[in-house]
Design brief:
Order of helices and strands: HHHHHHHHHHHHHH
Strand content: under 5%
Shape: globular
Helix content: over 70%
Number of helices: 14
Transmembrane segments: 45-65, 71-94, 115-135, 141-158, 170-196, 222-250
Number of strands: 0
Structural class: mainly alpha
Radius of gyration: 20 Å
Distance between the termini: 37 Å
Organism: Mesorhizobium abyssinicae
Keywords: Membrane, Transmembrane, Transmembrane helix
Protein name: DUF2189 domain-containing protein
Pfam families: DUF2189
C-alpha cells in the first residue's frame, strides 16, 4: 500500500538502522568536509542557496508594516526550522560527490526522482506543521503580553520590546519557547532527510533514527545544534546574505554527520 510505503519504506517492513556514538571532533571533521564540498563548485551552490536569503529579505520587507511587526522575529527565526528540508538538494550533491558521480548543480533537483520522495514529503510536511505551530504560539504569547492591538509605529514597537519589563519577558520566554521547537526539530530530523536520500527506509524510521541518534549522542548533538544556531545567526546578520554561504556548508556537513553516526546497511559494508 502507498501509505505504508511512506511509513515503512520500500521493503514494506520497518527497517531498523544501526547508529554509532561519535565525538565532537567528528562534528568538526564533518564541517571540514562540508567546506570542502562547498569549495569544489561554490558558484552553483551559492546560486541554489540564494533562495534562502532572498526569502528572508522578503519576509523582513513583508513584516515591515506595523501590523505585522510582531511576526518579524518569529518568521525569520522560525524559517530556520525548515532548514533541514530546504537543504535537501545539498545533501544530494554531497551524496553524489561521495559516490564519484556527476555532482553539477542541476543534480540538486534529482531528489524529485528519489523513490523515497513520498516519505521526504511527509517529513517535510511535519516540519511545516511545526513551523506553523511556532508562529501561532509566538503570536499568542505576544498578544497575551501586549494585547491584540498592533504597534503604533516601528520606533514604538522597538521601545516596547527593549525598554519595558514585558518586552524583556517576551525576549527571554520567547527564546525559551523557540528553543523547545528547535530541539524538537533537531531530535526528529537531524539525520532524517540524508537517511531517506540514501536509503528508502520510510518516514517513521527516518524520524525514529534521528531520535535514537540524539539519545545515543546527547552532548554531541547539542553541540551540533549550537553550531547550526550560531552559524545561522552569523549568516543572517548582513541582511541574510551570509546564509548563501552558511547554509550550503551546514547542508553538506549534515550529510557527513549522517555518514559518521548511521551505519551503512550490511549489504553496503565491504567484505571481510
Amino acid at each position: 500500500m502507498a501509505s505504508f510505503h511512506v511509513i515503512a519504506g520500500a521493503s514494506e517492513t520497518l527497517e531498523h538502522t544501526r547508529i554509532r556514538k561519535i565525538g565532537v571532533s567528528d562534528l568538526f571533521d564533518a564541517l571540514r568536509r562540508g567546506v570542502d564540498d562547498f569549495m569544489v563548485k561554490p558558484s552553483h551552490i551559492v546560486f541554489l542557496c540564494l533562495i534562502y536569503p532572498l526569502v528572508g529579505v522578503v519576509l523582513a520587507a513583508w513584516t515591515s508594516g506595523a501590523n505585522a511587526l510582531p511576526l518579524l522575529f518569529p518568521l525569520v527565526s522560525g524559517f530556520a526550522l525548515l532548514g533541514p528540508f530546504a537543504a535537501i538538494g545539498l545533501y544530494e550533491i554531497s551524496r553524489r560527490r561521495e559516490a564519484g558521480i556527476d555532482a553539477s548543480w542541476s543534480h540538486a533537483f534529482e531528489v524529485k526522482n528519489s523513490p523515497a520522495l513520498p516519505s521526504i514529503a511527509a517529513v517535510g510536511i511535519m516540519l511545516f506543521a511545526i513551523f506553523i505551530a511556532w508562529l501561532l504560539t509566538a503570536q499568542a504569547f505576544y498578544v497575551q503580553l501586549f494585547g491584540p492591538a498592533p504597534p503604533a509605529s516601528l520606533s514604538g514597537f522597538i521601545n516596547e520590546i527593549f525598554a519595558t519589563g514585558r518586552g524583556w519577558t517576551l525576549i527571554v520566554l520567547g527564546h525559551a519557547i523557540g528553543f523547545v521547537f528547535a530541539v524538537v526539530v533537531l531530535c526528529t530530523t537531524v539525520v532524517a532527510f540524508p537517511l531517506l536520500l540514501d536509503r528508502d527506509v520510510g518516514a517513521y524510521e527516518a524520524i525514529h533514527t534521528s531520535v535514537r541518534v540524539v539519545m545515543a549522542n546527547p552532548v554531541v548533538m547539542a553541540v551540533w545544534g549550537l553550531i547550526v544556531a550560531v552559524a545561522l545567526i552569523i549568516g543572517s546578520i548582513p541582511v541574510f546574505a551570509g546564509l548563501a554561504v552558511v547554509l550550503p556548508i551546514l547542508g553538506h556537513a549534515t550529510w557527513h554527520v549522517y555518514r559518521k553516526v548511521v551505519e551503512p546497511p550490511p549489504s553496503a559494508k565491504p567484505a571481510g
